Amino acid sequence: MKITTFLLLISSTILLSGCLPSQTGRILSNPVTTNIEENSIQIKNFAYNPSEIKVKPGTKITITNEDDEAHSIVYDSTEFDPTFIDPKSKTEMNAPISPGTYKFHCDKHLYMTGTIIIQ
Ligand SMILES: [Cu+2]
Description:
Layout: H1 2-38, E1 40-43, E2 48-49, E3 52-55, E4 60-65, E5 71-75, E6 83-85, E7 89-94, E8 100-105, E9 113-118
Parallel strand pairs: 1-4, 3-9
Antiparallel strand pairs: 1-2, 4-7, 5-6, 5-8, 8-9
This protein binds copper (II) ion.
Copper (II) ion (CU) binds next to loops.
């Protein structure tokens, strides 16, 4: 009886340790992907992607326009300057410095909408 219990313990320990490295690898690889996309907005097929981003005050946001048409980021509240992005190009803009929720749209395509959350 005792030998059987001992053998079970050893085999389960080996199984567990065999599983751990692959799980750790998956957990470690996730934050890298998230960080790259966090401060950027891609415009493709007349849509902002992501349509909502959360950034810290004053963060530099990279905007990439993949479309063949010019787009813009115009805040619904007019206190901020709009940002225009030429077709197939990339530009940068600074996020507002006061915490809050800022809705924006494209001046040429009013159905294109997005939100920047400063926190
Ligand atoms: Cu547009």
